[in-house]
From TrEMBL:
One of its GO terms (molecular function) is excinuclease ABC activity. GO terms for cellular component: cytoplasm; excinuclease repair complex. Residues 16-95 form the GIY-YIG domain. Residues 208-243 form the UVR domain. Belongs to the UvrC family. The keyword Coiled coil applies. Keywords: Coiled coil, Cytoplasm, DNA damage, DNA excision, DNA repair, Excision nuclease, SOS response. It holds the Pfam family UvrC_RNaseH_dom. InterPro entries: GIY-YIG_endonuc (IPR000305), GIY-YIG_endonuc_sf (IPR035901), GIY-YIG_UvrC_Cho (IPR047296), Hlx-hairpin-Hlx_DNA-bd_motif (IPR003583), RuvA_2-like (IPR010994), UVR_dom (IPR001943), UVR_dom_sf (IPR036876), UvrABC_protein_C (IPR050066). This is UvrABC system protein C. Residues 211-250 form a coiled coil. The UvrABC repair system catalyzes the recognition and processing of DNA lesions. UvrC both incises the 5' and 3' sides of the lesion. The N-terminal half is responsible for the 3' incision and the C-terminal half is responsible for the 5' incision.
Amino acid sequence: MPDPSTYRPATGTIPDAPGVYRFRDPTGRVIYVGKAKSLRSRLNSYFADPVNLHPRTQQMVTTAGSVDWITVGTEVEALQQEFTWIKQFDPRFNVKYRDDKSYPFLAVTLNEDYPRLQVMRGAKKKGVRYFGPYSHAWAIRETLDLLLRVFPARTCSAGVFKRSAQIGRPCLLGYIGKCSAPCVDRVSAEEHRGIVDDFCDFMSGRTDAFVKRYEREMMAASDALDFERAARLRDDLAALRKALEKQTVVLGDGTDADVVAFADDPLEAAVQVFHVRDGRVRGQRGWVVEKTEELTAGDLVHHFCTQVYGDEHGERDVPRELLVPELPPDADALADWLSEHRGSRVQLRVPQRGDKKALLETVGRNAKEALNRHKLKRSGDLTTRSKALEEIAEALGMETAPLRVECYDVSQIQGTDVVASMVVFEDGLPRKGEYRRFAVRGNPDGSGTDDLSALTEVLRRRFARYREQAAGSPPEETTPGAGELPGIDPTTGRPRRFAYPPQLVVVDGGEPQVNAAATVLAELGVTDVALCGLAKRLEEVWLPADDYPVILPRTSEALYLLQRMRDEAHRFAITYHRQKRSKRMTVSGLDDVPGLGEARRKALLRTFGSVKKLAAATPEEIASVPGIGRRTAEAVLTALNGGGTTAVPSGVTGGGTDRGTDTSSGD
């Protein structure tokens, strides 16, 4: 494996100027291309301590054997050269935007004498006008079927067109008025191209002009008593309006824009883009890409623009406006480069309010759903789940695959409302009926609780309960009777809480969390449960007492399964934390006053305005409120001024509960 220090350029030889650089492997093949405003700063960052690099970047610099570069005059030139090299060399470590499916387009073959309307997939061809993409091919055919009545252009293949011309008889579409039949010279090539040009104008967003034109012609035909033509135009107008109804208006100002949003984790990013033309969503696309280094949302915007709009046929796809969640560092240069491709000015904007911001949030939700679908699609495959469990067993040195895995996470804000979650995966699938959540009791001295002590407490409670279930009861109770099953409560027929031990415990965290968990298991004498931690920053797997983590391959099914467990535990913990926090923020000292119900509490607060003013009132003033007697007024003052019981926030258990709270769902 090459050592980056062996090919690091000599100090001072890298120019402090904008340029483009290439990393090559020992055979000379280009494996990564990048651009920089300052080549010196960017390249030096690759030769820093490898421990601080992104895992993918680590792999790249240790695979490479040399680096070279060229300087350019401006950032726009750097963008152009970067795009050229990426297309030329197809580097394996560059972010690649490959569609998660082959999206269909509505294509118009303008390079033919008699242009054809058809559904096309795959690479774009020169001389063909594309509209879309659409989510389904049937959506294109449905739109075409409506519009062919108004724009009767050719849709048949070259063979059908040639055969109809030979026999002098058009196909069925020609007879029913959905084709102008240029094959039998009903219209000339110029007239047919005019029909196609009108169709392209309509699909490009200039719809109002056609609707108004057909309305005028319909009224003129009606005034001239040509009712057959007026009826035909009426039906054509209805077809146009129906086609427009299929495309939802999302921006009332007629905006032409692409709305781009991202959802990412340390390894991958999902990208969604909505194509909005004349205020209507004309198409949608999505990608899932591997992250080659630590990328911000602005960096993802840069990669998206250069790859999606950069090819030789991409100039028709460049919108007037690009709505993004964050501007890249080279936003001005990127806008200039896109403007050159479009032929007119292109703006990159981050919407701050209104409909555009709401639409960007909608696209963002679609991106999150796409990333979740991508990460979870493996879970439905039994073979894939089995492979993941086997890979986990091999990586952790386990004798058999862990059929039951428990994952733990802690959630808190500065030591308040400390909670923890336990999620259970059996055979690679979540067992939500076994999920548990814990209210952490905290330190005996009343000080704040950190993540390590909270994790220690939760694991001690969980496995102490398991030890009690296994050996703490009298022998006559622990020995199952006739027809009884171990771990099953004979009175209810349900599994006892914490009755089954896991084969593997996963904690959210790195070396400190794993060692703390190992200490607890050792104290309790639990020796038959494997333990590991998944560190979030670099997705490293830590084992107890190991100085170095286990690095699983990025495409490993084991890593995907561990990530899913960690993310599920985090979701479940933070859901419980939010519930506790919201309950705590809505309680008051009036809640525990005997005989004071909700209606009378509201009456007191309406009268005095706040609990503070209520506490400063006299018993006579409180008793003057309708429904409040003298004894109740005295009880209220006693509770508010510290003379009685202190209210305990709802949902908080001061000492915790060993059994946790049983739940089978979360938001």
